[in-house]
Write a structure and sequence with these properties.
Radius of gyration: 29 Å
Distance between the termini: 54 Å
Oligomer: single chain
Strand order of the largest sheet: 13-14-12-15-16-11-17
Largest sheet: 7 strands, parallel
Number of strands: 33
């Protein structure tokens, strides 16, 4: 069928009709828009030259929406009556050919349905910001910069010690491609512009021939690694491999060899890592071993760099991508393998916007693409272990460290009734001292940044609280500022107590800043490097902090950023401070997260030939979780935790969703959840569902950023029943009058209950 349309209210001209559409129908574009509304929106093409066909699917269009212009995605071809003049025409078609593949569109449809989110918001989240704004696909040719003939002879005239001279001296040796510049020299464009203005440099296209790239040789696989590789390569098509390997067992080597096999089949590979800080180290290892350029996608890159990386993979030019959570949306027209490193990590769960889990979405994509996926971790999530027990996943195990490395010795030190030196026991200080005297490195782990978690008046008991959150303000920056870690509010530290005027204000507790200060005083002859969110904000901030220590004896003080995947060969001692804070929590997932964190941070010790020691400082040495980890390791803890979850009918033996709601007025949030509960209970009764609703309850932090926070928990023994209930209720929830006075969202499979 072919139609021609005229803009505005002019009559449409028709060609002979096909049997599938009646004479009074025309084909329309059903467009997903980035608005918090369910469903697709019907539009006409913009002119008689635009013929509606399947080639529109996956293309972007600019459309009128009320008084605004929005960028949307054509997701379906619809039908409308020819005399329906209320339909508006699109403003323009942005893409001549679809930029979203059939597989990616199908996966995003599944995502919207499962996580109960509007498809337009899902598509908007999946696309790099420049593409969301309607810009064209960026040029995916790879470019490099080299010195011109004039540059070779005149670059020495540049100002001494200037950045332009330093860059020119690099270019004397060889041309430098823009991918390397983006990753290692953030300000390169302005510097290169200076050189280009002087005609010292020129831009050239880099040929993609990497046949002559000199690759580093990797270690030989041990027997356990060989068995894992054989199992991975023996399966064809879709399969999920859960690779449990103790820290230092060589999981990364398995990844590299699996990717090399994928490339040999002329396929693409996608690797997800949980933190931006892991990307540079992982990237360096992969670049040294793989014969193709490795593309990177994470939030610290510029908008242009993210768009180019996405477009490179979508075009098929890119063969390997490493990225954080959002990279799961990369287009993979020639997909061959997906790898999720540290699959247990909660960073894979999106907490803003719609609440997707990148690991679970990656598994769905692997199934739709009919390719294998590897989930790797030293501490697999209880959900993944349960799936392996149910034979949904192939279980692979690396129980021993690779090479000569040995597992660290772990012990507890009881600090009850013991005098602490700035929060550190004498056992801890002696362990650090012994490590440093051997010329090795120590890590002191405290999962709380800042100087101290609270400011207290010793005379009247006043505590400095955030005015917008139910949380004390954290003392920061050498006790000069108070900062809320939840909403970002900050103010100078008062000189006297605001309540009684006393000068007896004391910083209570210990954060990484205070530990850094204390350790620098205890060990003045050794460098003490702090690694937390404040010191690693800049691009490659973690890499730069670790370089400050290098291969010299010294101390690292850090948060959980240091617990994930970093290979520190000289690190032989790990001290854990403040573990007690995580032993008692209302969140049923808290023990699992604490066990994973302790195992992960302990695994930093003794990665090379240096024997490792881990000392955990606690007021609760008889706590069952700590004793179980000491006696049986993570596997024994996981078996006990799974049994407890089953008895309590908690995930993974049950299924959960939270309806979260927040408002400036607590009454508005409660009113919405009360109305939502009425809708849900009506459907539960009508359909005979076996579900439990908690009703409206305050969130773990009832007030955050000036908003009152409430939530409603739904639990079910059947995933299908839970999904059906949400699908039946969703439209009614959007139409509730009380929904207009509060901000609400649905979190399917919540990773925390806060």
């Amino acid at each position: 069928m072919r139609f021609s349309f005229l803009s505005g209210s002019n009559a449409s001209k028709t060609s002979p009709m096909t049997a599938s559409i009646t004479l009074n129908q025309i084909r329309t574009l059903k467009v997903a828009l980035p608005v918090p509304l369910l469903g697709l929106f019907d539009y006409l093409p913009s002119g008689e030259q635009d013929l509606v066909s399947e080639q529109w699917l996956g293309c972007r269009v600019e459309v009128p929406f009320g008084t605004r212009r929005l960028i949307g995605w054509v997701c379906e071809i619809g039908h409308a009556e020819m005399d329906n003049l209320a339909l508006k025409a699109i403003i323009r078609r942005i893409d001549a050919v679809p930029i979203i593949s059939d597989e990616l569109l199908a996966s995003l449809r599944w995502t919207a349905k499962y996580y109960q989110a509007p498809l337009g918001e899902v598509l908007s989240t999946a696309m790099p910001s420049l593409l969301r704004e309607g810009q064209g696909l960026p040029d995916v040719c790879q470019y490099a910069w080299q010195l011109t003939e004039a540059g070779h002879t005149q670059y020495t005239s540049l100002r001494k010690n200037s950045r332009a001279l330093q860059l020119a001296e690099r270019l004397v040796q060889h041309a430098i491609d823009e991918t390397w510049l983006e990753q290692h020299l953030p300000q390169w464009r302005s510097i290169m512009k200076t050189l280009h203005t002087k005609l010292y440099v020129e831009r050239v296209v880099v040929k993609q021939n990497t046949a002559h790239k000199i690759l580093e040789n990797g270690p030989s696989l041990n027997t356990q690694q060989q068995q894992c590789m054989a199992d991975i390569l023996s399966t064809e098509g879709y399969s999920v491999h859960l690779l449990e390997g103790v820290t230092g067992s060589g999981k990364t080597e398995i990844y590299i060899q699996a990717i090399a096999h994928c490339l040999a089949q002329n396929k693409q590979a996608l690797i997800l890592v949980p933190e931006i800080g892991l990307t540079p180290q992982t990237l360096a290892r992969f670049e040294a071993r793989l014969p193709v350029p490795v593309h990177v996608l994470h939030s610290n890159l510029s908008d242009g760099a993210r768009a180019r990386a996405w477009a490179a993979m979508a075009s098929g030019i890119g063969r390997v991508m490493i990225g954080t959570r959002s990279a799961v949306f990369a287009s993979l027209p020639e997909a061959g393998l997906i790898i999720i490193d540290e699959e247990h990590d909660s960073s894979y769960k999106q907490q803003d916007g719609f609440h997707y889990h990148a690991r679970d979405l990656a598994i769905v994509r692997a199934k739709n693409l009919d390719i294998p996926i590897i989930l790797g971790s030293a501490t697999p999530s209880l959900e993944s272990l349960h799936n392996a027990e149910q034979n949904r996943y192939h279980f692979l195990h690396l129980p021993s460290r690779a090479g000569l490395a040995k597992p660290p010795t772990v012990r507890l030190t009881d600090v009850r009734k013991i005098k602490l030196h700035h929060g550190l026991s004498q056992d801890m200080l002696d362990g650090i001292k012994h490590c440093l005297e051997k010329g090795e490195q120590a890590l002191v782990f405290k999962n709380r940044r800042g100087y101290a978690p609270a400011l207290l008046c010793h005379d009247c008991g006043f505590t400095a609280m955030c005015t917008r959150c139910d949380s004390p303000l954290t003392v920061h920056a050498g006790q000069k500022r108070l900062i809320c870690h939840h909403c970002g509010y900050q103010k100078p530290k008062p000189l006297a107590c605001p309540d009684c005027g006393s000068l007896a204000l004391q910083a209570q507790g210990f954060g990484t800043e205070r530990l850094e200060e204390a350790l620098s005083e205890f060990f003045p002859d050794y460098p003490c490097i702090r690694v937390d969110r404040e010191t690693t904000r800049k691009r490659d901030g973690l890499e730069q902090q670790l370089k400050l220590l290098g291969q010299n004896p010294g101390i690292l003080v850090g948060t959980q950023i240091l617990a994930k995947g970093h290979d520190l060969p000289l690190l032989s001692f790990v001290g854990v401070v403040g573990v007690d804070e995580g032993l008692y929590s209302a969140d049923f997932r808290a023990p699992e997260k604490l066990a994973q964190l302790l195992i992960q941070v302990s695994g930093r010790a003794g990665r090379s030939t240096h024997a490792g020691t881990v000392l955990i400082q606690t007021h609760h040495p008889e706590h069952p979780l700590l004793l179980e980890l000491l006696r049986g390791g993570y596997r024994q803890f996981a078996q006990t935790a799974l049994a407890e979850r089953q008895l309590a009918e908690l995930p993974p033996y049950a299924y959960m969703a939270l309806i979260r709601c927040e408002s400036v007025h607590s009454e508005s949030a409660q009113a919405f959840l009360h109305d939502a509960s009425t809708v849900l209970l009506a459907h539960i009764k009508q359909q005979g569902f076996s579900l439990h609703s908690s009703g409206a309850i305050p969130a773990a932090m009832p007030k955050r950023a000036g908003k009152s926070r409430w939530q409603l928990a739904l639990t079910a023994n059947s995933r299908q029943e839970l999904q059906r209930l949400l699908a039946l209720s969703l439209q009614e929830l959007y139409q509730l009058k009380s929904a207009r006075k509060a901000r609400w969202s649905i979190d399917v499979d919540p990773s925390d209950l806060s």
